[in-house]
């Protein structure tokens, strides 16, 4: 079994699976049970400043969307940061860290954008023995109306300023948690780096309204007839999060900035994907909230089996392996030609591929009178739509055409040379190929 | 094909080879990759899952199903085997309808459980198909344990002991190991020599020596084993069969269902097996169902199961009963055999109707006759050959919760031991748990 031991910005944990700052990490009771279940680390639910804690709504906090069989795909929440007193949280963090010295405990923080506030809270955190801090510049609801969370995360200058204070007043490793509610995620990441952050973590939740109550004419979750936008997370946000992680990983400015990947991690495979795109570890919230702490066992066995298969002995070897293959569109090889192919033994003749291709794509699937579906290579542009709508896994595959063959669609010979848009004759800006 | 289903008497070759081969294929064909993903997706990953509680070996069912759903069937198999080393056989033979699947929340909610048994088979087949044995032995404890009986109880016990670093010698009276996995389970539940393949795969952990043709009480004694080994585990099953106590039981073609099934399991050519035109099976358990169904599949024209109590009391599950009737077997309830008819060979059975009066089963006085050229007795097996020194309770070796018998240094489990249902999976659990206790006592 592969060794999953992980080291992220100097913080060690027995595996790269951390629980993200959220209800699963809101208190000692949860965190102890999470560690017993096998989680490598936790980012404690975000702490605010001393004094009376924030107050949460007493109506529904969550909205959701579901896939087939009511599988939860996306979760929306309007919860604030911790609503328990600062001293209680600090005391509990200290107690848990003492009993679980091999696990990572990071403390998430959100205090007003004032130097004094940060200067005041950091020594209290250091005193707990926690391994690091995460600056919550991400929550998009509630706290952002009070000038914190995403309100800071959307202004790179603020990120840089606060990060600098944190590095100035504390020796703790500092992770800056980014909001996805921004047009170019590279900017806040660069700002965090300039401020001296040891790492960034992303994504926090995405602004969302999941549904509308059509009797009350109010967004859901509805509280006494009104609803506010919330933060979206869960499997549905994974593609957005993966792209943002990759954007930072392949940006030359931030290429060496460690990333903790968050957003829809539900299985070992999701975790491996985040890590391949540059995340040093992953954080999980919705999957644990949906299935309980025990899912980490599947993540552990799955990642370790996959690493064994790949002959990889340490998690650090997978980090960033897919980054060099993540490019701009203009660099994709236009001479790569593929065709869809339907495995007639697997096909159940539902006709979905036909409807998709005939009605909305390239009319490249033929349907016979006795419902045999086959691809017409003369028309197929290998768009992959049929693959994605086919209910049977691996029934339709994309087969690469060998160099030298004639593409029946264009009548042209398949080239064995790389040829992309930068050199394509149709591109007015093409630089001549040598 | 010289004979047909309508040929009188007990004859071979009633069906052609192809029909026989079709009849005896897998009862439940294995799931392919896609089917397995679809089936696994239905699991809710329940907390403190009821299915897991219902499994006698406590397999972490939600976890192994999630591991299938996430594309790691090897990890899934390890989850299964760590609790139940015969998870492959159990996936085929467990009456899941009265165990895990009966209590699956989706059975309760929709009457359609997650297909736990078939998913378990998918995972275990995947890993075993690669010839991978997922466990290695711990460093040697220097202890030697004798196991009597190479059925599920003995094999499970031996494997766990070997894994923990002990050396094990298994003694079995038969020439072939496997117990009822090899000689009892219906053919269509364990096709393609699975029992022997699984046995070899299990033994590949090392540290287990198999001695066949060694019968306790004949070739070896408990005292001898106790002297030569640090501990003894008895997993000898129930080698005897109950008598019918009806007149004419000694007539020709009145046979034990268990030996009929054993012959069938060992037959290299099913067309050479003789079967009656009209077969009567007496009993109400899994053995009765298996004998009846297999008689039908061999080409008997009329097969009747005669059970002395009502449908609700039958120990074969409703699922098994439905399987029998779907194959064309007729089940008669509330009838008991009075005598076997015929001179020399059986030609029929006289039955009396029964009723329960004051908690006792009595004849109503009304009788009827059924034609039969072959009669199978499937009214239960009994313990034989148990060492005299051991306390017997309810006809079985008395054991405590750890599998300890009345004699120190001797453990027992499986069908021969008191407690638990007589099922493969229960035997596996008891063998494993006894092994843990033996190991603890040897290394204390
Ligand atoms: C026909 C039939 C069908 C069944 N079908 C199912 C089913 O579908 N599903 C299910 O869960 N259960 C089924 N069962 C029950 C299941 O097979 C048993 O519960 C299980 O095999 C018990 O395991 P065991 O190891 O205790 O005994 P066994 O499997 O009986 O093994 C005992 C072993 O001990 C050996 N032995 C006996 N006496 C001695 C001796 N004196 N010295 C040395 N060795 C000895 C025997 O040769 C045998 O190998 C069935 C039983 C029968 C009879
Ligand atoms: C109910 C809820 C509360 C959350 N609270 C916080 C928080 O206090 N601090 C924080 O940094 N992120 C918070 N998050 C965001 C998560 O930490 C995480 O970034 C997000 O849910 C995406 O990961 P996921 O798809 O695994 O859930 C919260 C998320 C949820 C669902
Ligand atoms: S999940 Fe628990 S706290 Fe939340 S509404 Fe349901 S019962 Fe109440
Ligand atoms: S969508 Fe898939 S299964 Fe359906 S007809 Fe097309 S190839 Fe066959
Ligand atoms: S009870 Fe059914 S749904 Fe729940 S964990 Fe078990 S198999 Fe899955």
From TrEMBL, chain A:
Keywords: Iron, Iron-sulfur, Metal-binding, Oxidoreductase. GO terms for cellular component: cytoplasm. Gene3D superfamilies: 3.30.70.20, Aldolase class I (3.20.20.70). InterPro entries: 4Fe4S_Fe-S-bd, 4Fe4S_Fe_S_CS, Aldolase_TIM, Dihydroorotate_DH_cat. One of its GO terms (molecular function) is metal ion binding. Belongs to the dihydropyrimidine dehydrogenase family. This is dihydrouracil dehydrogenase (NAD(+)).
From TrEMBL, chain B:
Its EC number is 1.3.1.1. The keyword tRNA processing does not apply. Keywords: Oxidoreductase. It is an enzyme of class 1 (oxidoreductase). Residues 22-130 form the Dihydroprymidine dehydrogenase domain. It comes from Paramylibacter kogurei. It comes from the Bacteria. Residues 143-431 form the FAD/NAD(P)-binding domain. Heterotetramer of 2 PreA and 2 PreT subunits. InterPro entries: DPD_II, FAD/NAD-bd_sf, FAD/NAD-binding_dom, Helical_ferredxn. Involved in pyrimidine base degradation. Catalyzes physiologically the reduction of uracil to 5,6-dihydrouracil (DHU) by using NADH as a specific cosubstrate. It also catalyzes the reverse reaction and the reduction of thymine to 5,6-dihydrothymine (DHT). It catalyses: 5,6-dihydrouracil + NAD(+) = uracil + NADH + H(+); 5,6-dihydrothymine + NAD(+) = thymine + NADH + H(+). This is dihydrouracil dehydrogenase (NAD(+)). One of its GO terms (molecular function) is dihydropyrimidine dehydrogenase (NAD+) activity. Gene3D superfamilies: Alpha-helical ferredoxin (1.10.1060.10), FAD/NAD(P)-binding domain (3.50.50.60). SUPFAM superfamilies: alpha-helical ferredoxin (SSF46548), Nucleotide-binding domain (SSF51971).
């Amino acid at each position: 079994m592969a060794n999953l031991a992980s080291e992220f910005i100097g913080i060690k944990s027995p595996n790269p699976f951390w629980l993200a700052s959220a209800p699963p990490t809101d208190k000692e009771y949860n965190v102890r049970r999470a560690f017993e279940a096998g989680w490598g680390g936790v980012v404690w639910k975000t702490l605010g400043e001393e004094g009376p804690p924030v107050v949460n709504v007493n109506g529904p906090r969550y909205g959701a969307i579901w896939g087939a069989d009511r599988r939860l795909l996306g979760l929306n929440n309007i919860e604030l940061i911790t609503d328990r007193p600062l001293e209680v949280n600090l005391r509990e963090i200290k107690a848990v860290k003492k009993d679980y010295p091999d696990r990572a405990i990071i403390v998430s923080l959100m205090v007003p954008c004032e130097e004094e506030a940060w200067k005041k809270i950091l020594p209290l955190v250091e005193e707990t023995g926690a391994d690091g801090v995460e600056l919550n510049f991400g929550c998009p609801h509630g706290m952002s109306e009070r000038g914190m969370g995403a309100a800071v995360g959307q202004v790179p200058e603020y990120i840089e300023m606060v990060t600098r204070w944190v590095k100035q007043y504390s020796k703790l490793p500092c992770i800056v948690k980014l909001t996805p509610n921004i047009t170019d995620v590279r900017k806040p990441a660069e700002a965090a780096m300039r401020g001296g952050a040891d790492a960034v973590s992303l994504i926090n939740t995405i602004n969302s309204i999941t549904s509308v109550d059509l009797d009350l004419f109010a967004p859901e979750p509805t509280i006494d007839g009104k609803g506010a936008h919330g933060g979206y997370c869960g499997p549905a946000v994974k593609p957005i999060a993966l792209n943002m992680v990759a954007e930072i990983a392949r940006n030359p400015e931030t290429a060496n900035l460690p990333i903790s990947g968050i957003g829809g991690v539900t299985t070992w495979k999701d975790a491996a994907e985040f890590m391949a795109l540059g995340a040093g570890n992953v954080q999980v919230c919705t999957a644990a909230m949906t299935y309980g702490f025990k899912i980490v066992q599947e993540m552990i066995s799955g990642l370790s089996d996959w690493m064994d298969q790949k002959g990889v002995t340490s998690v650090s070897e997978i980090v960033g392996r897919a980054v060099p293959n993540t490019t701009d569109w203009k660099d994709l090889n236009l001479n790569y030609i593929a065709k869809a192919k339907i495995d007639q033994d697997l096909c159940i003749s539902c006709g979905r591929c036909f409807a998709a291709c005939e009605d909305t794509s390239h009319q490249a699937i033929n349907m016979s009178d006795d419902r045999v579906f086959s691809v017409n290579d003369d028309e197929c542009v290998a768009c992959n739509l049929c693959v994605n709508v086919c209910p049977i896994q691996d029934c339709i595959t994309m087969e690469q055409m060998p160099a030298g063959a004639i593409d029946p669609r264009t009548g042209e010979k398949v080239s064995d040379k790389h040829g992309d848009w930068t050199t394509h004759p149709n591109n007015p800006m093409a630089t001549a190929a040598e | 094909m010289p004979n047909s289903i309508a040929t009188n008497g007990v004859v071979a070759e009633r069906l052609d080879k192809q029909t026989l081969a079709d009849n005896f294929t897998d009862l439940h064909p294995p799931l392919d990759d896609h089917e397995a993903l679809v089936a696994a997706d239905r699991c809710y990953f329940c907390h403190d899952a009821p299915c897991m509680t219902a499994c006698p070996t406590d397999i972490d069912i939600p976890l192994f199903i999630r591991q299938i759903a996430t594309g790691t069937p090897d990890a899934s198999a390890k989850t299964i085997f760590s609790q139940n080393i015969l998870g492959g056989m159990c996936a085929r033979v467990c009456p899941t309808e009265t165990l895990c699947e009966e209590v699956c929340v989706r059975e309760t909610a929709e009457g359609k459980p997650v297909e736990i048994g078939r998913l378990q088979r998918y995972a275990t087949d995947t890993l075993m198909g690669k010839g991978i044995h997922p466990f290695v032995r711990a460093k040697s404890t220097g202890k030697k344990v004798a196991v009597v009986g190479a059925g599920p109880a003995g094999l499970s016990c031996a494997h766990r002991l070997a894994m923990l670093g002990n050396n094990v010698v298994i003694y079995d009276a038969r020439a072939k190991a496997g117990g009822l996995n090899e000689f009892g389970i219906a053919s269509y539940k364990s096709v393609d020599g699975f029992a022997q393949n699984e046995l070899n795969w299990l033994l590949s952990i090392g540290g287990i020596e198999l001695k066949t043709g060694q019968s306790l009480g004949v070739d070896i004694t408990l005292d001898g084993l106790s002297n030569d080994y640090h501990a003894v585990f008895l997993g000898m099953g129930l080698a005897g069969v109950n008598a019918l106590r009806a007149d004419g039981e000694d007539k020709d073609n009145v046979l034990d269902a268990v030996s009929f099934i054993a012959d069938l399991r060992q037959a290299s050519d099913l067309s050479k097996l003789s079967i009656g035109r009209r077969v009567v099976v007496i009993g109400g358990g899994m053995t009765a169902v298996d004998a009846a169904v297999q008689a039908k599949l061999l080409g008997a024209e009329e097969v009747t199961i005669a059970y002395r109590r009502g449908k609700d009391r039958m120990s074969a599950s409703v699922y098994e009963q439905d399987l029998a009737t779907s194959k064309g077997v007729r089940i008669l309830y509330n009838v008991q055999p009075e005598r076997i008819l015929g001179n020399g060979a059986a030609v029929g059975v006289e039955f009396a109707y029964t009723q329960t009066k004051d908690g006792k089963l009595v004849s109503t006085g009304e009788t009827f006759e059924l034609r039969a050229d072959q009669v199978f007795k499937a009214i239960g097996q009994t313990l034989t050959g148990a060492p005299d020194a051991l306390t017997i309770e309810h006809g079985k070796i008395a054991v405590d919760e750890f599998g300890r018998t009345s004699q120190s240094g001797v453990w027992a489990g499986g069908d021969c031991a008191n407690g638990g249902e007589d099922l493969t999976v229960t035997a596996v659990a008891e063998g494993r748990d006894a092994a843990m206790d033996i190991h603890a006592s040897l290394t204390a």
